[in-house]
Amino acid sequence: MTTTRTRAARIRRVHADGTTCEHQVHPRTGRPRDPAGGCTGRTGYSADCPGCGETITHDLRVVVADELKYRHRHRHTA
Question: Is 14 left (phi over 0), alpha (psi -120 to 50) or beta?
Fold first, then answer.
Protein backbone atom coordinates (compact mmCIF):
# COMPACT_ATOMS: atom_id res chain seq x y z
CA MET A 1 0.00 0.00 0.00
CA THR A 2 1.33 3.39 -0.99
CA THR A 3 0.47 6.49 0.98
CA THR A 4 0.82 10.02 -0.26
CA ARG A 5 2.05 12.55 2.23
CA THR A 6 0.89 16.11 1.68
CA ARG A 7 2.81 19.16 2.75
CA ALA A 8 1.13 21.26 5.40
CA ALA A 9 0.86 25.00 5.01
CA ARG A 10 1.97 27.16 7.92
CA ILE A 11 -0.48 29.91 8.80
CA ARG A 12 1.37 32.96 10.06
CA ARG A 13 0.39 36.28 11.63
CA VAL A 14 1.05 39.32 9.45
CA HIS A 15 1.40 43.08 9.96
CA ALA A 16 -0.51 45.62 7.85
CA ASP A 17 2.41 45.81 5.39
CA GLY A 18 2.39 42.03 4.86
CA THR A 19 5.49 41.20 6.88
CA THR A 20 5.37 38.27 9.29
CA CYS A 21 4.61 39.17 12.91
CA GLU A 22 6.84 37.14 15.22
CA HIS A 23 6.07 39.23 18.32
CA GLN A 24 3.87 38.15 21.19
CA VAL A 25 0.41 39.62 20.68
CA HIS A 26 -2.89 39.55 22.53
CA PRO A 27 -4.96 36.66 21.10
CA ARG A 28 -8.18 38.65 20.64
CA THR A 29 -7.03 42.13 19.72
CA GLY A 30 -3.74 41.42 17.95
CA ARG A 31 -2.06 44.27 19.80
CA PRO A 32 1.53 43.71 20.89
CA ARG A 33 2.07 42.58 24.48
CA ASP A 34 5.18 44.80 24.69
CA PRO A 35 4.19 48.27 23.41
CA ALA A 36 7.84 49.36 23.39
CA GLY A 37 8.86 46.45 21.13
CA GLY A 38 8.27 48.28 17.86
CA CYS A 39 5.53 45.92 16.64
CA THR A 40 2.50 47.50 14.96
CA GLY A 41 0.34 44.51 15.85
CA ARG A 42 -1.28 41.69 13.91
CA THR A 43 -3.79 42.73 11.26
CA GLY A 44 -4.42 39.36 9.66
CA TYR A 45 -3.21 35.90 8.77
CA SER A 46 -1.50 34.54 5.69
CA ALA A 47 -0.44 31.16 4.31
CA ASP A 48 1.28 29.93 1.16
CA CYS A 49 -0.26 26.96 -0.65
CA PRO A 50 2.33 24.14 -0.69
CA GLY A 51 0.99 22.94 -4.05
CA CYS A 52 1.16 26.09 -6.16
CA GLY A 53 2.68 28.78 -3.92
CA GLU A 54 -0.38 31.05 -4.02
CA THR A 55 -0.66 33.26 -0.93
CA ILE A 56 -3.99 33.31 0.88
CA THR A 57 -4.55 36.25 3.25
CA HIS A 58 -7.51 37.23 5.42
CA ASP A 59 -8.33 39.00 8.70
CA LEU A 60 -9.53 35.76 10.31
CA ARG A 61 -7.36 32.69 10.83
CA VAL A 62 -10.31 30.32 10.40
CA VAL A 63 -11.00 31.71 6.91
CA VAL A 64 -7.38 31.10 5.80
CA ALA A 65 -7.48 27.56 7.22
CA ASP A 66 -10.84 26.85 5.57
CA GLU A 67 -9.64 28.18 2.23
CA LEU A 68 -6.55 25.95 2.32
CA LYS A 69 -8.36 22.88 3.56
CA TYR A 70 -11.48 22.92 1.40
CA ARG A 71 -11.79 25.55 -1.31
CA HIS A 72 -8.27 26.04 -2.65
CA ARG A 73 -7.35 22.38 -2.31
CA HIS A 74 -9.87 21.34 -5.00
CA ARG A 75 -7.91 23.32 -7.61
CA HIS A 76 -5.08 20.77 -7.26
CA THR A 77 -7.07 17.55 -7.71
CA ALA A 78 -6.15 15.45 -10.68
Answer: beta
